[in-house]
Structures are given as structure tokens and as C-alpha cells.
């Protein structure tokens, strides 16, 4: 066999030993036979005798490894010495060791002793010993020949090797005889287990499958943490690596890596189960199947034989995490189930360290980076408590929070943060997109839609029972009313839905998203569906602030104009904003902001609008529907007369039904305002449709995950 095959076989033997050896780490002759799956007991007994260097009647893994390593990697002379000792039986080798008190090779010396061959025999091989060896060789090779033929083979080999005709073959004579056959001395090998055929293939395939899956799991289970280094990814987005690495797909890659881990774990587990089942069926195995699978008794693993039970626990945790990570769980109001089960990555890493002897090496660097980021985030978020200072309860159960902004909290449009409100849930952190512009210095805006347990508790805490720290204190109301006049408001709310508060909260962030690329675009198409407008709210407000900085007014005639020179941070020539909502009330979230944008557009003396709004209400029947044609005609006429839409109050007419994306993108392409990039925030189903149209028109497509 080749050196590579011998090395693989050595790994297989070591694994078999670890599987069968008990807590004392030693095996006897019967266990040794079971470990090597030998057909003929003669060679098992001879090998056992020679490997047992201390003559204790058992061999340890170290004794086995020392002997086999030298026989695999040693020089031809070492292997020949061992072969001679195997053949030098003196008529006793096939009887076994029990009751004879035989010593090992050279009375305690290893089979690779540098001295002349010593062992249990006389130092020479007679004709009877040679016949016993050849007979065992025939049985091991599954060859059946008549006794006469066996005698002829024995005499042929003996007479050829016994050069001095003294009736015995010495070590030197055996060496000279083997040298007559080219390549034999150089390629001597030992193969006590199955050496060929289907049996060997199955054993080695199972072994390689287990090890292969295990190695991939070492990598996957450590690298999966790298994909969630939010601070690191935010920093990388500001470097040239953002143009090379798919940083915006980190969530998708994290999910894909999770599925790969599950698949590899199942294959890894099945391979072990099959192996355990076969071992349990072996008469020589001292363990039953359930002991191999669920207990530490077989001693499998590098930490007190814990590989099997830790493997079972890992698989159960992994399947639980997979089930609770499904979209039906996360998006059906049970986000907390997903959140808490995902925290089981901590016990999983501990179990993996106990399960696999090399996993800690793979986890070392990613684990340090991961926990360092967690520590930094925890320290920064807990450095000082913030306050929710104002709350607006908007239609469709949307909670608009205004949080005081920390002095050193710097973010970019479209970034998101994690929010913790101890009065709602002490240990829960939930991600939300920042809907205010970075230029807004006093407060941070968050728009939270009530879709899960935590978000519903947040909304109801303000809706039903006014929190203890919320009220209508005259001083607070006057203070925040003055501040509110300096920033655009969401909508006109009734006093009972507009609260001034002093509720403690913590934030962790900000973290980056692909939306800041909008400013580097030439023609940006922003598409928001429902609450998916929130990242674009920040973008649109930032655009307003930047345009205000470029606006000039003549002190004499009050004439206003805009600088035509664009800054390095914003290369936009045109922005199309498309907002799709189900019903009329959903538009109230950001109507005041959009109204201000339209007013600024009217004051800009440019060829065509820089920002163009497109509003769609999916619940309204289309203009071609007989049940709605009269209403839609009336709405069009009134909008032209009053120069505003009756549904939203904007100058932009709200279109009924869903957009015809083919027509929308044809119009965008025909404007030729520069390279078009489409940014979307909404449902995955609509994202798939939009991506297909973008590919058709040659537009770049970016999706915001929220």
C-alpha cells in the first residue's frame, strides 16, 4: 500500500482504539481483535504480543501509536525486523498469550529496537513456523488450497531462504531473500484491518465522511460569527473593501452558512450512528449501541469521553435554533422566540470545544473578535442611560419614538441601532432603522411597527395605561414644543396620542447599511413598502438638509437660488421616491415630511424636479375598474383644481392599485439622468420582482434588510 494509504489506515486504527478502549485507555487481546476487524487470529495475537512492550497483557494507545508510527514511517530495516519477529513463532505464537507469561518484543523493547531482532522466539524461523505463518496468510487473504500445496509452498520458500541449509532461517537470510524481489523491502507495510474490497471502502468512506464533515463544521461554526460582526462590517463599508466584498449580503451568507452547518451536522451524525451500530453488532464489542451513542463509557473524545453526549446535545440545539429561525416564526409576532433561541450559540460553542479537539483553534480569532465587539457594544450602550422624551402613536399601530441624542452618537442616513427599554423588557434588544436625519442634532427618531410581542407591549404601554414617567407637565410641554417647531413633524396628532416622556432606555449602534450609497448614485430610485419607508425617511431628510445648505437668498430682493456645484458626498442628479401603502391612514406617517420636500422642490429653479414622488395605494380600485372609474375621475379633477391630492394632501396624486413596474422603469430609463441604482425596503416577494426588472433594464439593485 502507498504511504498515504498507510497514514489513513493509522488514523483508522487510532480511532478504532479510542472507540473501544475504556476509561483506563487500555485494551486486551479480544478488544484488539475487534478494533482491527481481523479475519485470522494468528496475526492479531502476534501483533498484540509485540505491541505489548511492558508485558502487561494489555496495550495502551501510546504503545500502539509508537509501534505503528515507526512501522508506517520507519525505514525498511525496521519493518523487516518486525516481520522477522512475527514469523519467529517457535510453535507458540498462535496459541495466544494467556497463561504463558510471554514478554513483548525484546523483553520490553519496542519492535523498532535498534539492536538485533529479539522477541518471544529463538532468533530463527524453522520450517514448521514458516508453514504456520503461510497457512495464516492464506486464511487472511481468503485463499483456500490443499494441504499438499501448502507444504509445497512452504518448502519452496524455506529452501530458497535457508542458504546454509542448517534447517533454520536467520534474520540475515530473510533479508537477503526479500532483496531478491525488487520493491518488496522498500514498500513493506502492515495492514491488520480490512485491506481491500467493499468492506474496506465502506469503513474508510464512513471514517472520511465523519472527519470531512467535522473539519468543515470546525470552519463553518467559527466563521459564521464573523458574518455578524456589525461594527466591523460598518467600518469596512467605509473602505475600498466595500467595492470588493459582498458586505451587504452578510445576513444572507449567515443564513446560508447556518443551513450548511445543519446539513453537515446531519451527515456527520448519520456516519457516526452507522459506525456505532456496526460496532455494537460485533461480538467483540463490550458496548451496546445506546452506550456508544449517549454515554461517556466508551471514552470517545478528548475531554473525558464526552464526544457522543455533546454531539447529541449539539444536534438538538442546532435543530431547535433552525426551527425557531424560520421566517414563519420571526414574522408572525414571535420574534422573541427567535431572539432567545439564537442566544444558544454560547452553549453551542462550549459544547463544540468539548466535542472536537481542534475546534478551539478555529474559534480563537473569530471568537476573540466577536466577544471584543460584544464587550465594546455593551460598555458603550450602558455607559449612560438615555431618555425617550416624546412619543407619537401613529396609524396602523406605529409608535414614533423621539430619543435624546448622545453627544458622540454619529451616524449616516439609513443606519440602524438596537434599542433596549428596561420598563418593557430588561434584557431584550431589538433592531430599528433610524428615521431621522444625521443633521438633526437634538433627537433620534425611531418608527416602530407593532408586529411582535415586544413592539405590541411598547405600543400598548403608551396607548392604554400612560407610563408613570409620561405626562403633560407644562414646563416639559413648552420646552419640547419649542424644539419641535424647529424640526418637521410627522403629522398632526391628537393630544392623547402625543405624549411627553422621560423613560429610560439604552441604544447600541449605529450600524451601517447599503442605503448611504444613494448619495453616490447619479439617479436613485427609492422604493418603500409600508413601514419600509423608514430608512428612506432619514435619506430624504438628509437630502433636504443638504439642499438647504446649497440654497441662497438675496438680502435685497429676496430672490433664492441653488448652487449648481455638487459636493463630493452627494452626486445625485435625480431621485425618484416610490411609496406603496395598503390604505389611506398609512400615508399619515410621513406626510408632513413629504409636504416639506415638495415645498422645497417648488422653490428650486432647476430644469425639472430633483425629487419626484410617486404614491400608490393598493387597496384602491384602479381607474379601469367600473366600480371606481367615477371616483378616480373626480379625484383627478379635484386634484388639478386644488393642486393637491385629496387622499394625502400632497401635490403628488396618489395612484390607485399597484405600480406597473415595466412602465415605471421605462420612464426612469428614458430620463437619462445618469447611472440608475434602485434601493428597496420591503417584503422579500416584492424584492424578487423588482430585482428581475432591474436586471432587465440594467439597473443596479440594493435591498435593505429590516
From TrEMBL:
Pfam families attached to this UniProt entry: EF-hand_6, EF-hand_8, FAD_binding_8, Ferric_reduct, NAD_binding_6
Swiss-Prot/TrEMBL GO biological process terms: defense response; endothelial cell proliferation; superoxide anion generation
Chief localization: membrane
Record's compositionally biased regions (Low complexity): 108-117
Location of this chain's protein in the cell: Membrane
SMART domains associated with the record: EFh (SM00054)
Compositionally biased region (Basic and acidic residues): 93-103
Domain EF-hand, residue spans: 39-74, 149-184
Phosphoprotein as UniProt keyword: no
GO molecular function, one term: proton channel activity
Keywords, in A-Z order: Calcium, FAD, Flavoprotein, Membrane, Metal-binding, NADP, Oxidoreductase, Transmembrane, Transmembrane helix
Any Gene Ontology CC annotation: NADPH oxidase complex
Gene: NOX5
Membrane topology: Multi-pass membrane protein
Spans through the membrane: 256-280, 300-325, 337-356
InterPro entries: EF-hand-dom_pair, EF_Hand_1_Ca_BS, EF_hand_dom, FAD-bd_8, FAD-bd_FR_type, Fe3_Rdtase_TM_dom, Fe_red_NAD-bd_6, FNR_nucleotide-bd
Protein source organism: Ursus maritimus (Polar bear)
PANTHER family (UniProt xref): NADPH OXIDASE, NADPH OXIDASE 5
Name of the protein: NADPH oxidase 5
Domain FAD-binding FR-type: 381-517
